Amino acid sequence: MSSADADLIRQPASVLAAAICDGEVSSVEVTQAHLARIAEVDGRVHAFLEVTAEAALETAHLVDEKRKSGANLGVLAGVPIAVKDVLTMRGVPTTCGSRILEGWRPPYDSTVVARLRAADMVILGKTNMDEFAMGSSTEHSAYGPTHNPWDLERIPGGSGGGSAASLAAFEAPLAIGTDTGGSIRQPAAVTGTVGVKPTYGGVSRYGLVALASSLDQAGPCARSVMDAALLHSVIAGHDPRDSTSIDAPVPDVVAAAARGDVRGLRIGLVKELSGDGYQPGVLQRFNEAVEILQGLGAKVVEVSCPNFDYALGAYYLILPSEASSNLARFDGMRYGLRVGDDGSNSVEQVMSLSREAGFGAEAKRRIMLGTYALSSGYYDAYYGQAQKVRTLITRDFTAAFTKADVLISPTAPTTAFKIGEKVDDPLAMYLNDIATIPVNLAGNCAMSLPVGLSPADGLPVGLQIMAPPMADDRLYLVGSALESALTDKWGHLLIEEVPNL
Amino acid sequence: MSTNHETVPFEEAMTRYEPIIGLEVHVELGTNSKMFCSCATAFGAAPNTQVCPVCLGLPGSMPVLNRVAVESTIRIGLALNCDIATWCRFARKNYFYPDMPKDYQVSQYDEPLCTNGWLDVTVATDAGPQVVRVEIERVHMEEDTGKLTHSGGATGRIHGADYSLVDYNRAGIPLIEIVTKTVVGTGALAPAVARAYVTELRDVMRALGVSDVRMEEGSLRCDANLSLNKPGEGWGTRSETKNVNSLRSVERAVYSEIERQAAVLDSGGRVIQETRHFHEDTGRSTSGRSKEQAEDYRYFPEPDLVPIAPSRTWVEELRATLPEVPSVKRARLQSTWGINEFELATLVNAGAVELVEASIAAGVDAAAARKWWTGELLRVANERGVELAELPVTVSQIARVEALIADGSLNDKLARQVFEGVLAGEGDVDVVIAERGLAVVSDDGALLAAIDEALAAQPDVAEKIKSGKIQAAGAIVGAVMKTTNGQADAAKVRALLLDRLGVSE
Amino acid sequence: MTAITREEVAHLAKLARLDLSATELDHYAEQLDVILQSVARISEVAADGIPPTSHPVPVENVFRDDIAKPGLDRAEVFAAAPATEDDRFRVPRILDEEEA
Ligand SMILES: [Zn+2]
Description:
Chain B is α+β, with helices and mostly antiparallel strands. Chain B contains 17 helices and 15 strands. Chain B has a nine-stranded mixed β-sheet with strand order 3-6-7-10-1-11-12-13-14. Chain B has a three-stranded antiparallel β-sheet with strand order 5-4-15, with no helix packed on it. The radius of gyration of chain C is 23 Å and the shape is flat. Chains in contact: A-B, A-C, B-C. Zinc ion is lined by residues 34, 37, 39, 51-52, 54-55, 172 of chain B.
């Protein structure tokens, strides 16, 4: 890799976009630099399941032509991006990290991918993930784990570990993730990157292969708050193909990121999202960040959301229930893996054999759990009760947002753990999402951004900012202010400290 | 499969048991596009040509509800005197079946759009017509499934098939399910009530214009539930008979199930709660899958679709679009057309009411319109095995023929030939007349020549007429009609003949 | 909330169309039990009279116009199909031996 390339891949997306727009560098050069980086390091990181080099260069070339012709270009035109393999992309394999979909090439683009294309962005490929987004470590991918660029022995978080790792490894300046219980934010936290779960309904789910339909939300992954805001503005907005999409203007997240101001803002510390179970190193960096926010003029208050204690339980009933139904269609009849069709087996047997062979352990576990929670006789005690708890959690948020403009917490209770450490202990794995889950249940929005390295292990720690529904701009207002202060303190973004691969 | 074919004759069964019926009718709405996607809904399209990511259940696809499907359902609910929900949701009914692309069906479960309605139906009894009120439990929306074809095995049925083929064109077509409350106290009229109810429902759907309600194409499907109990005792176990594909079958299915269950109960047996399949050929049903180990459908609210909350303004706007209720309309037609109940029933059964109405509107005399639609045209429709409305003949063509009869250009016999040509696709009325040379011979010269010829051939008859035996004129008229291939106006021939012979009536 | 038995797990696997091995049945019986014990805490919440939330954002009445549009090309429809015949998806026989 040339030094020019090495320089290009470390640039923020906003800088690349401006340089491409001004003709200082071509999109083809930028794309080539990233493809070269992928070729160089992805054997060790394994962030990508599919690299669409040819199509990427073709798009980059078209963008360069378009620029030369004087046509109007979008804010991120020509900038490369990685897309989590859970979003459909016409003609490109979409596996969701599962054997059952190996080789499936969708005949249609998801709305998110369509918007990236419409914005003249260059899609580099599809990133690794826990199977059907079920996991917090990317170890549940049927195609092998992704490694955390901060320490290749460690997990990059999950389920969107591939997208987060691609940013931390400088394989892509931007990525798309999806977040059902923390799958954008927790990987961001453990890789020292920025990730945003927009308000539910803020970004179209059309073409997002559903895990839990009432919780899933796609969002931006980036190395800085401003880059995340720019990507957010590209993918968000009403989509008539998603009935749950909100038909209202997208909050001006780019302006908020540019402003970055917390003066007079009330910031709530959620009592239930700290203390026991959180590593001291995580809490230390979190508390330092709170002090910085105070120093910037924010008013810090403590709020209590008592029903958050039940969020994990409600989540692990609602998610498997919806997932058991969403994953039913993978039956080997119309697409995907078919096993045992020897002429003697019945359709029921072939479906069962195909699903048995095609799904991994975590997917099966959650399908079974969801089937149980929805079955007659148990519905009221499990699914029904979980939906009521969901209402209570939403009410907790509503009450908290009368006292504070945004809420904050550590994003994850721990820094990145070792690959293999928790893979067979579902309960320990589920605890990774304890702080991120309430937002998915209530449908509001949240961001994770890096606030330093844990003194215990030198690994990144993330801080979560939560805002009310459709107040996504507040995330950027606070995130940008905090990021600026930290950058001033360190002299650079935290990601600059990631070891050389 | 049950091998028990024992039955008790219907009349005898009715001396010991009271039937309770319940009917579940599925109606495919005639929308342009499917329930949750923009695919076309045309019947008979080549397999898998009206499918997209949504109705194929491809990963990532999402449903968006068809507004007209909702409006049609509300209009059906209003026509059936239902309450319209102020807020309701769809649910997922989870079960694996290869005709269902997502392995769940999007349906309404405990929150139907319409509830608590009724429909009055009339059945004939020895004591005259009797009105029975059938109460409606609910009207709800769901999506149809794909269509399976079974291959291998002897019968082409699911049993013994080696494998099956799936066409998803039908998957996602909006389906309305109309469920009655249990209908009690109809006694021996139960089969007739069942038929009258489905017939009336079909007429309501037609009047609303929400579906073509063709049972043979499956756009109206009926499941009949039946149980028997001894008078004064608790309700019995019910069976559900599916595959009831004609109005006649509705009646026969209830009738034969009464005979079957009576035999089971008479022999001290227990009626099993099961699904039965009706067979048109035998008029009997066979046992399907037992429902005792009921599927666990794991219903839950469909998260990909948002709730429907019809405003009362919207409901009232839809109410304003309702057509005349068929039963009210029938009373009106009887009086304006001057026909009795039986004559109207003939028109209704023939599916001719709207066609007659349209013909009258096009200027055809009421009696003539009825005569054509229930006579010659119905005969052809039956011969071809199609509905009257499907015949390639228009009301304006009937109006044209009637006008030609009125001005003497056509007679009845020629008119039938004109329709024969029109129905054979030979062209419009005037084209057929020209091509077939069907116009009445009105040229007096030509007719007189034919008369003279006939008189010359039968001089004895000519003499008889001259001598005052006018009834003998028929032989000459007949001969003239024969030589003119029936294209003469017989009355005119007769008048010319008498004039020729100087005889007066 | 009672413990989940191996038989229940087998029944769930049948409902969910998963041909689990004997080892998996044992394993999942144990794990589901542990998970359910842990999530069962939600029953402690007094939620009588609390409306359930099925949709996190209160959007209602979303409809599309009834306009038919062309769907997928035939080639795209069948591109990923494991088996086809006569322009249809071919699937194994539907009834089990004992049912047939
Ligand atoms: Zn479709």
